[in-house]
Amino acid sequence: MSVKYKLLIISTSDFEFTNIKCTSLDKEFDDFEYCHLKSVNRTFKYISLKVRMYKIPVTRVKVNFALLKKFNGYKPFLYNITTDACRVLKYPKSNPVFGFFHSLFAHHSNMNHSCPYNHDIIVDKLPADFVNTKFTKILPFPVGDYLFDSKWIVNDINRADVQVYGTLS
Fold it and tell me: Record's superkingdom (predicted)?
């Protein structure tokens, strides 16, 4: 009679924001009122940003987003996708990868409906532990330093860049 043993390894990873950079590339179209990383204490950090939209309604939005991992500088890691954000927000199943990345901030943002956008864009107090759940439980990623780079293209003109840096340990 043979005895089979199962080895259970429990891995706990922890995601932490390290920086955020927001750049308006067309100050007549939009500008960032604020864009910051707030550290409440050693274990609780969140990011917030507000984009003032000067030319509304916004009806044609593309987003290029890339996930980069630090290997002697930031190098492409898994994803570099450009998608029609208005279409994906209307039909979420049309691009599940964009849907995953949108779900990282959708519950903390007013960017949760399809186009047109007749208001400023806000991401309010997105906590690192919310992102941690997505990066470790839903879709596990290897430990390391990451950069989520997004370019917001409206009417075929790149209007803003948002870069979120983080560490998964």
Answer: Eukaryota
pLDDT classification of 44: cutoffs 50, 70, 90? confident
Structural domains of the chain ordered from first start: 15-168 (2.70.220.10)
Q: Where are the beta strands (DSSP E) in the chain?
A: 15-24, 30-39, 45-53, 61-70, 74-84, 121-127, 144-154, 157-168
Residue 143 to residue 125: CA distance in whole angstroms: 24
As a whole number, the mean pLDDT across the chain is 87
pLDDT at 85: 92
Q: Report the largest interatomic distance among the alpha carbons of the chain, rounded to a whole angstrom.
A: 77
What are the angstrom distances between the C-alpha of 46 and each of 15, 41, 60? 12, 10, 29
Residue 114 CA to residue 40 CA, distance in Å, equals: 33
Distance in angstroms (rounded) separating the CA atoms of residues 161 and 117:
18
